[in-house]
Amino acid sequence: MSWMSPWIEGIGILDSAPAWVLAALSLIVIYIFIVVPCAALISYLDRKLTADFQARVGPNQAGPAGIFQPLVDGLKLLQKQPRDPVSWREAAWLSVHTMALYSTVAVLPLGSAVLLVDTDMSAFLPFWSALVLALGTMLLGFSQSGVPGWFGGIRVAAQTLAGAFPALIALLCSGVAAGGFRWSLLAAAQGTSPLQWTAFANPFQFLAFAVFVVSGLVTLGIPPMDAPFSSTDTHGGVSSGLWGRRYILFRLGRFYGFFLWSVIAVTIFLGAWSLPFGGSDYLREQGYLRLLQTLELLWLLLKTLLLMILVIWAARVNPRTRVDQVTDFAWTVLSPFALLALIGASVVVAWGYFQ
Amino acid sequence: MSIQHPLEECLKTDLATWEIGPYDAALPGPMKLRLSLDGEVVVSAAYETGFLHRGLEKAFEQQPWRAVVAYSDYLDTDGSIFGELAVCLAVEEIARIEVPRRGQYVRVLLSELGRISAHLGYIVRVAKAMNAETIIHYVLRDRERVLDLFELATGARYTLNYLRFGGIQTDITDGFVERVLEVCELFRVRLKEYNDLFTYNHAFLKRTQGLGVLSADRAAALGVTGPNGRASGHAFDVRKAHPYSGYDLFDFAVPSAGGIERDEGASVGDANDRFLLRLREISTSVDLLKQAAEGIPSGEFNYFGWGEKAIIPSGEAYSRVETSRGLLGCHVVSDGGPSPTRIQFRPPSLAHFSAIPELVKGIRLEDLPVLLATLDPGISEADR
Prior knowledge:
The structure holds two protein chains of two kinds. By secondary structure, chain A is mainly α. Chain A has one domain. Chain A has helices spanning about 5-10, 10-15, 20-55, 70-80, 90-105, 125-140, 145-180, 185-190, 205-220, 230-235, 245-270, 280-285, 290-315, 325-355. Chain A starts with a helix and ends with a helix. In chain B, the strands form three sheets. Chain B has a three-stranded antiparallel beta sheet. In chain B, strands 6-7-8 form a three-stranded antiparallel beta sheet. Chain B is of the alpha+beta class. Chain B is globular, with a radius of gyration of 22 Å. Chain B starts with 5 loop residues before the first helix and ends with a helix. The chains are: A mainly alpha, B alpha+beta. The interface of A and B includes residues 50, 55, 232, 318 and 319 of A.
């Protein structure tokens, strides 16, 4: 785990630890210090900004301006007793969920020096995990032993299948431009200035970017495409029977899917982690590795959070779309546009090649 | 005897039944709905009401006449003024009391404010059914202004207890009329804002157009009146057909379906029509409010002077009022005693309920809350 070395140098016990221990440690570190705080931050920003849009106050009791609200919510949910013993179906869901979660943390691109798995197929691995996550969510819905959970599970399956196709095609577009699906390659293909980002390289790439973000909403069931979790007709769908610790796990999984998707979108379309004004190269030359990792991570997270907030903003003013309309939209609108973007992007690349 | 293929037996599908209620987010209030589902499509539905029965009509008989108005507030708290008005009109007919002009105008003012308030509540319920959060807060913010006006005039925000046999309880406060005019101006602006934010939202149109189409014939046959009936083209409005409380003095047009440009796939009497018609009715109410506020005469506001007691002779009368949901009938029987012999209501929502089983056929489960919210049956007045 080379990226950890600048941080653990001089700690004797870790210097001599085997690689798999370090790998496991790094996953836990990323999960606890990046994913969970981001979830808290987004849930706070979501509530506060939404309150501003809707002419109300929002959380303001826990801490100054209510910043501890996510923490308080979490603690409250942790205190709750489980209603009934864990069933084997729920256990299956939990293990699938955990597998998906941890496998994606390993492939999460978080900076030029924080790439745990950087293979030729890197960019596809999170997709696989998103699909597994969806499978877990569907099983969870079925395990609710009630009509709402059943409908939720079916809707999850329908939306994930419908959204995955255009998303994969959109991913191909960026791969075509970059010449491969390595995170490092995808990032290196883009410059630091927004004009050099893949999304703004040409209209086809921008189309691909838009398709990618929207099909992410479809695949993961993020508002306003969240029919599987609809509270009015199916009492929350998949999550209808969850509360307490299991509900926290479920919410974290949902957030993680959204977060993962946004990180990928930023990495492949919005300039990845390269610091503005050539900062990354300068820091690397000077050997400030810790600073480089920290700043790149913060820069990437900033762009990710902004993208997420944009999506939340759109979700707040739009009514929830019906599940059959969502799948129709994915197959008959997103998919053709994704194919168009792929053809266009390929032509642009070929044109550059022949020049 | 035919041998069934084993696979066929495994894959045999059947209709699913699901009973929702009495408490469910999809329902407009405490009621039960027994759904028969083919996948996500509703094949048939049967409803059961009565979970909110409070014995209101019986309560009237056990109370003195002066308690009647206070009790009628609870017929439907969304628009409590309509219940009061229906009872008062019937009792005044029995006792041959003539309401002074000023009292009539104030009643019209409060009725139309009540209609606006109820229709704003309707927008909130529809938006809530499809999880459009932002519009809810904007509408509720504006409804506060209407409730403030109620508070200014009557001291209460919901259950007003303001009308009296022969007029109103006390004269309206100074500055009330000016503030009504301010609210009229506000709603001219706000209606456009709601349209920009919600009415013309593509996702909203996609979900409501063509949903739950009620034809004019069926509306008339089922007795569906009010905005729901007019949205289907069944243009009946008590304010026009049988004017009461001086409504014949005002110049207003009752909106009705038809004459609106329609997108493809939309038909007269669908959920979107019902929603649009409420918005247009708010606009009509604003017109009426303006006329009433500008033309309000001075003078007595009640037939009786301070401390005088109305004596209700024996007799019976039936009054009709156009509420925010439709035709509210009220039958009052008196034997000249200290309390009413019988007071019976004909709430408009009963007819809306009877339309549910035929409207839900073939819709998707996800549209059920939207359909029920746009139909907007009032459980409170139906169960009473």
